[in-house]
Design a protein that fits this description.
By secondary structure, this protein is an alpha/beta fold. The protein is built from 13 helices and 25 strands. Helix 8 runs parallel beside helix 9 and helix 12 runs parallel beside helix 13. Bound molecules: 5'-deoxyadenosine and iron/sulfur cluster. This is tRNA-2-methylthio-N(6)-dimethylallyladenosine synthase.
Length: 518
């Protein structure tokens, strides 16, 4: 039965949309001749809730036998926006594509499936995705068999899904961050049904282990937890990534061991707030410090982690990091603002003083630590004085670098409803002043390294000059050196010869390479 509807829901309000059917399989609707199968749609109210329901850990196969030849002779391409969590999700999706028989391509004209793995953190990230969809529309017109998908954080937003249904109905597939493992099934549904398939879960569901991953290079990411319960008032992540769920320590450790066996040189442990790791375990008392202590014993030369929340950074973790070995002396410790009043309105749950106290404790145990940060300027109502508190904190901490952002209102977050009397021109000016200060500090800190010997993991040719190799120090500083291509993938001892703002130049100390000790 077909019936007219004008108010399908808050965001699906298109005159002319018809509901074709509605049952436990979801809704089938038709908009402007396009059939859309909404298996489930995002729901902010549900995303906000933090239920007590148990999170199961599943060890099933994500790619069923019958779909393992779906992509034979076909190509896939994934564009990834945003953070390392998204980069890593892309590696998982690539793994699944390849188990389905697909081959990777960089050429969009060759691709049979194109996915946009999107980021919702700021408005400009979303604008880029909608811009790209505009370009891809032409490709889809030329090649109607192409499957176009949107996944990642933007798919978790009600307003985004509504906008795609309304204005970009040529998209074939929308799925969210909680059901990435459903990609094979959803893709085959989209291919065979010719409908747009929408499946976005508002509840996080289970932790799925054993998903295939296609990693590249010598550095690997490993998820230790998913989601975030912090609900900073400006941030969309708790809504798009769900509640905090930690992977079991034995699963994380097994994955790191396997990567060590495969010869990876560096591992970054990933979570929106890694310091909350283990808080959700009910049967064991095992936190991030314990995990780091166990991972330190594995023969991987370098272990990093990102990202930290100052509130949960405990003394045990500081003590463990002080043991060094493969635990590098770099901590990304986002502060967001140097003003206690603004931090309170951001609901960061620490003060300027307690953050500085944490920095003091870390420096007491790791004197040569490199600290980096995320900072937001122009939060609603931020005064000149409060902004200057941020500048003075940046000086006091002495960051080596920081990612800086102008506050971007995100629909559905508490800060989006706060009164904001700071003109955009003032916000832009503050960003420039902050960036100037950070550039100055970064250069100073790099200058202090001149003449020192540091260990570099050589990653490849420099982006702008193929005769120069580029790599990273333990503290994650970018280094340029001249040397043979055989050094790529090796640890080299170098002497710093020149400091720039965003990188250092160095010369090799020994001609032979030295593996780092763990
Ligand atoms: N506006 C600007 N920056 C934001 N961030 C998160 N949400 C917003 C927002 N609404 C920044 C924070 C966070 C980083 C990943 O992005 O600094 O640490
Ligand atoms: Fe967003 Fe705050 Fe969670 Fe970081 S800790 S992801 S800024 S809510």
């Amino acid at each position: 039965m077909t019936k007219e509807t004008k108010d399908f829901s808050k965001y699906f309000d298109f005159s002319g949309a018809k509901i074709i059917s509605e049952d436990e399989q979801g809704k089938k609707i038709r908009i402007g001749g396009r059939d859309i199968h909404i298996m489930s749609e995002p729901n902010y109210r549900q995303e906000k809730q933090r239920g007590k329901e148990e999170v199961r850990v599943l060890y099933d196969q994500a790619v069923p036998e019958e779909l393992r030849s779906l992509g034979n002779g076909k190509h896939y391409l994934i564009y990834t926006y945003g953070c390392q969590m998204n980069e890593h999700d892309t590696e998982v999706m690539k793994g699944m594509f390849e188990q389905m028989g697909y081959t990777a391509t960089e050429d969009r004209n060759e691709a049979d499936v194109i996915l946009l793995n999107t980021c919702a953190i700021r408005e400009n990230a979303e604008d880029k995705v909608f811009g790209e969809l505009g370009h891809l529309k032409h490709l889809k017109t030329e090649k109607p068999g192409l499957i176009l998908g949107v996944c990642g954080c933007m798919s978790q937003e009600e307003s985004v899904v509504g906008r795609i249904l309304q204005k970009h109905a040529f998209v074939d597939l929308i799925f969210g961050t909680h059901n990435i493992h459903r990609l094979p099934q959803l893709l085959s549904d989209a291919l065979f049904s010719k409908e747009m398939v929408v499946e976005v879960w508002s509840k996080e569901g289970d932790i799925i282990e054993n998903l295939p991953k296609k990693r590249e290079g010598m550095r690997a990411w490993v998820n230790i937890m998913y989601g975030c319960d912090k609900f900073c008032t400006y941030c969309i992540v708790p809504y798009t990534r769900g509640k905090e769920r930690s992977r079991r320590p034995e699963d994380v450790i097994a994955e790191v061991r396997e990567l060590a066996r495969q010869g990876y040189k560096e591992i970054t442990l990933l979570g929106q707030n890694v310091n909350a790791y283990g808080k959700d375990f009910e049967d064991i008392s095992y936190r991030f410090g314990d995990l780091m202590a166990d991972i330190q014993k594995i023969a991987i030369p370098r272990i990093r982690f990102t990202t930290s929340h100052p509130r949960d950074f405990d003394d045990h973790l500081i003590e463990v990091l002080g043991r060094r070995g493969n635990l590098v002396e770099h901590i990304h410790l986002p502060v967001q603002s140097g003003s206690t009043e603004i931090l309170k309105r951001m609901s960061r749950k620490y003060t300027r003083e307690s953050y500085l106290e944490l920095v003091r404790k870390i420096k007491a145990v790791i004197p040569d630590v490199v600290l980096t940060s995320d900072i937001i300027v122009g939060f609603p109502g931020e005064t000149e004085e409060q902004f200057e508190d941020t500048l003075s904190l940046v000086r006091e901490v002495g960051y080596d670098s920081a990612y800086t952002f102008i506050y971007s209102p995100r629909a559905g977050t508490p800060a989006a409803g706060m009164e904001d009397n700071v003109p955009m021109e003032v916000k832009k000016q503050r960003l420039r002043r902050l960036n100037d200060l950070i550039g100055e500090l970064s250069r100073e800190r790099n200058e202090q390294l001149r003449g020192q010997i540091v260990e570099v993991l050589v990653e490849g040719e420099s982006k702008n000059n193929a005769d120069v190799l580029s790599g990273r120090t333990r503290t994650n500083k970018l280094v340029h050196i001249e040397g043979p291509k055989e050094w790529i993938g090796q640890f080299i001892q170098v002497r710093v010869t020149e400091a720039q703002t965003w990188y250092i130049k160095a010369e090799p100390v020994h001609q032979q390479t030295a593996e780092a000790v763990s």
